Batch of 2 targets.
Target 1
Amino acid sequence: MTILETIQSEFHAAYPRLASGKYIHILMVRHSQSFPVFQTDGVLNVARTQAGLKTSDAMSRLVMFKRKQITPERLAGRELLRSLDLTSAIKGTENFCEYNGEDSCKKCPDCILYGFAIGDSGSERSKVYSDSAFSLSSYETSHKSFTFNAPYEGGTMSEGGQMRSAINELDHVLPEVSFPTVETLRDLTYEGFIYVLGNLMRTRRYGAQESRTGTMKNHIVGIVMADGEIFSNLHLTQALYDALKGDLQAPIDVIRQQATTVINALLDQEPVRKSQIIMGEALESLLAEVGAIYQDDAQLKAMMSTLYQQTRTYAETYGALMKKGKK
């Protein structure tokens, strides 16, 4: 029996109207592999926090706001749905769905799982809970300011004797900066879990200017199924900071190993019932099984089609389509 088969009983057969205490926590370390830009109003987002749970010194940390995490993952999922002809980017077609717009379909997996709010047209609360992530290392050691320019097509800054002054400066996150993160899924079906987990595994670029830089890897270190929410991103980051004893430039494999130990210790302190804790070899097997699903066209299409029918049924029974009487 595969790991996925052993956990299928943890999920709903259909999406319920009310919360029923089925939480899946995906614990990971987001690790920069180029120069992402996480900024608001032209500067990197920074917060002053306590360094660790046992280290009372204050430090400035880079912040990866919720939308900087969720938006690229949603777009990866929406791209997949369009590639399988489950949704459409062509206005006027039956399955047309506009991202964050008045014309969102209100029934596809993206709309129902990640939520939407469209004024009087209805809303749906997200079933994917996320929060701001904080860098493990300090702001001072995790960023660098780069000067860039915009040359003419000839490759120079001058054209016809005229010099272009399109030179600017922008702060970037450095490579190999870690952001410990907990992403929580509430009351999902098995197919919905595969969809959201697949989005995490397949998303490679985050932040502004993501077509030119911003490559990151989501190192998933644990999946916990429980009847309530667990610790925050900042709490996990501070606990991991203490465990590393200041060695914040450690290789990602060391950080992952320490994160596994820290997570187990923190879970022992949480007032929730834990039905499944998947780490180590079991987790690697599960991720390999999910990867195999995404590599199998027929299996993937069948699973995502089932998910689409589940979210459409939910929308027509409890959601925005039911309120408008649409079919």
Target 2
Amino acid sequence: MKKLISLSFTLVVLATAPEAFAKINSADIRAARSLFQSSGCTSCHDATGSAAGPSLKAIAKRYKGKPVITELAQRIREGSQGRWGDLSHPAIDYLTPTDASMLAEWILNGAPL
């Protein structure tokens, strides 16, 4: 039974690995950076320093190598609470799922300029 559980876990990890290690192309970098700035994200998040919310660098570090693009995109759109202490993230539900995923991927790739 333990071998079956271990095998199942391995298959899940391998199936989601491409999401964890996705590289973002230059057009998406520009689009994500623009979206980050135009969506009000800069009022709480900074690239390296701590503002009202965690820095983009801290977010990328926390989730490095983990397949969380979809999860992070969902939190961006729907909001979240308690992931960074008492901080809550407001819902940004006007973003499309595609835009939220691109933004999440950009953040997880270190928010390249």
